[in-house]
Write a structure and sequence with these properties.
The structure holds two protein chains of two kinds.
Chain A: H1 8-11, H2 22-25, H3 32-37, E1 39-40, E2 48-50, E3 53-55, E4 57-69, E5 73-79, E6 84-90, H4 116-129, E7 138-148, E8 151-162, H5 168-185, H6 205-224, E9 229-230, H7 232-235, H8 240-249, H9 258-276, E10 279-280, E11 290-292, H10 297-312, H11 314-317, E12 321-322, H12 323-333, H13 340-352, E13 356-358, E14 363-366
Parallel strand pairs in A: 6-8
Antiparallel strand pairs in A: 1-2, 2-3, 4-5, 4-7, 5-6, 7-8, 9-11, 10-11, 12-14, 13-14
Chain B: E1 7-8, H1 11-15, E2 24-35, E3 40-47, E4 50-57, E5 71-80, E6 87-96, H2 102-144, H3 152-164
Parallel strand pairs in B: 1-2, 4-6
Antiparallel strand pairs in B: 2-3, 2-5, 3-4, 5-6
The chains are: A alpha+beta, B alpha/beta.
Chain lengths: 367, 165
């Protein structure tokens, strides 16, 4: 009853839409204080929210103020002046067998010239050195945020010592971060709920969402009520609750009327179902009558008849009839407007009922 | 286990009351003197025309190569003693950053501080608004009496009325 100042669940965008936020797929460069304070998602643990942006990967740059070494990993405490966080940096397998870095022959003095093995060893040594840091060094870490034992830490995917002799990297980092925040992280995640792109078919994602729901609703209805044939206005009522609930969520005024929205949604839904082959129009007349593929007994009989007759012929006796052959025969017999998708849906249905059987992927015979 | 974060402070700010005792800070200054026996170094920074000095306790970061006149970056805790020694910075990290562009660095720090200040004021504004909204809502519901329910719309109109004043 009281105004809810925004509970955590209500604020979080649904997990289906997270992929739409570019921040989600990027290693976000946040201040460590924000990383430590961000909320964990209630929908999926391991994903965190900064101002309704879902994220789980971060990129930090800071001074090492704490170091702990174990056999397999380093744990560096990184301080970027806003906060300190532990970074778990796993040691690379290839350096385990390094042994003592041996003295390398000076290639310029060597008669053999460029010795690839020595150079490779040097490269590996340089790589290894960039992962061993001391307190006071500058470290860059890119990795996933984890919460373990009530403490946030970063499990590094990649990390390296930054060579910054005149503090240029740190200064540019300090200058960039506020810009990044203003342009990106502090901008709210635009969930496609404002239906401005509703003019083109499938223009906005909210419309897509409504569409997928309406397709499902319609399918369920047709299955449950065993509808064999219907006209659009017969099923229009199914879409009313969808449009009503969506307009309740939106705050902006609806530029289009309820009826227009319903009509549009219905048209798109029927077109999708037709493309999938779930429904079809037997005869293209003014009267928009749709037949439901799986319930149309006449269609099924026609298919079975075709198969029965043709399998008697020697040509098809063993292997069965190919889908395209069935298609052309049924078209002649039943309806010229039959599409391949419709036929495939019908054939699958018949096969599930054990009326026909497929001998290969595209051939069928009748049982 | 982890040390507290060290915010950037300019040398002239360290000597003033802006920085509390025990606070972790980082700063940058030119090395004027170094006494290895006492582990004391002095960094100096310049604001307009005034020079100010910061004493640094270098026990934890020794040995290091002291280059007099070079710029150094130091991170550590402030210790304010009552005696003559004044303010001391116990260094945890000391790096030579000679060649650093001081003006640019100052700009960067000011920019970062401005950003955090903006954030603070935005947050304060938002939370005060929230407080007002929730207290208003409570008022409203108690005014209607117990046991009545109200729709969101009615609530919104009431709130709008309150806030537009």
């Amino acid at each position: 009853m009281a105004v809810n100042p925004g509970g955590a669940d209500a604020d979080e965008p649904p997990s289906m839409l997270w992929g739409l936020d570019p921040v989600f797929s990027a290693y976000s460069r946040l201040y460590i204080t924000d990383i430590l304070q961000m909320k964990e998602s209630t929908q999926v643990p391991g994903v965190y929210f900064y101002k309704n942006h879902p994220l789980f990967q971060v990129d930090v740059l800071g001074t090492v103020v704490y170091k702990r070494e174990r056999d397999d990993f380093y744990c560096y405490g990184v301080d970027d002046s806003t906060g300190v966080i532990n970074c778990l940096c796993w040691k690379d397998e290839k350096w385990k067998d390094q042994g003592e870095p041996s003295k390398y022959r000076d290639p310029s003095g060597s008669s053999r010239g460029f010795n690839i093995e020595d150079e490779l060893k040097r490269l590996k040594e340089a790589e290894r050195k960039s992962t061993v840091l001391e307190i006071g060094d500058l470290l860059r870490v890119r990795g996933t945020v984890k919460t373990s034992r009530d403490a946030r830490e970063i499990k590094a995917n990649s990390f390296y010592k930054v060579s910054d002799p005149v503090m240029a990297v740190q200064i540019s980092h300090m200058l960039e971060m506020p810009q990044l925040y203003r342009k990106c992280y502090d901008q709210p995640f635009q969930m496609p709920s404002d239906d401005l792109g509703g003019t083109e078919a499938g223009g906005s994602s909210h419309f897509h969402y409504l569409l997928s729901r309406s397709v499902l609703t319609l399918k369920e209805f047709l299955l449950e009520k065993e509808v064999a044939r219907f006209r659009p206005y017969d099923v229009e009522f199914l879409l009313h609750p969808l449009i009503q609930s969506s307009s309740a969520e939106q705050e902006s005024d609806q530029p289009r009327s309820f009826a227009t929205q319903i009509r549009k949604l219905l048209k798109e839904t029927l077109s999708i179902l037709q493309d999938e082959g779930q429904i079809f129009r037997k005869i293209r007349t003014q009267d928009e009558v749709y037949n439901v593929t799986e319930q149309d007994k006449d269609l099924h009989t026609a298919i079975k008849d075709v198969l029965r007759e043709d399998t008697k012929r020697e040509k098809y006796a063993e292997k069965g009839c190919h889908v395209l052959h069935i298609l052309s025969s049924v078209r002649q017999r039943y309806s010229q407007n039959l599409s391949r998708e419709v036929l495939e849906v019908a054939l699958t249905f018949l096969e599930c009922n054990s009326d026909i059987i497929s001998t290969t992927e595209a051939h069928y015979i009748v049982l | 286990m982890l040390p507290p974060p060290a915010a950037f402070q300019f040398p002239w700010e360290i000597n003033s009351d802006l920085v509390k005792d025990g606070a972790s800070v980082r700063t940058c200054g030119r090395l004027i003197s170094y006494v290895p026996e006492e582990s004391k170094a002095v960094l100096s920074g310049q604001q307009s025309s005034a020079q100010c000095h910061v004493s640094v306790q270098t026990t934890l970061v020794e040995p290091f190569q002291p280059i007099l006149g070079a710029q150094y970056f130091v991170l550590g805790e402030i210790e304010k003693t009552d005696g003559l020694s004044g303010v001391m910075l116990r260094a945890r990290a000391l790096t030579c950053v000679d060649g650093v562009d001081l003006t640019l660095m100052q700009q960067a720090i000011v920019e970062q501080r401005r950003f955090f200040k903006e954030r603070e004021t935005k947050d304060e504004y938002a939370s005060s608004l929230l407080r007002l909204a929730s207290s208003t809502a409570l008022e409203f519901s108690s005014a209607l009496g117990a046991g009545t329910t109200t729709t969101n719309m009615t609530m919104m109109y009431y709130l709008r009325g309150k806030f537009s004043k």
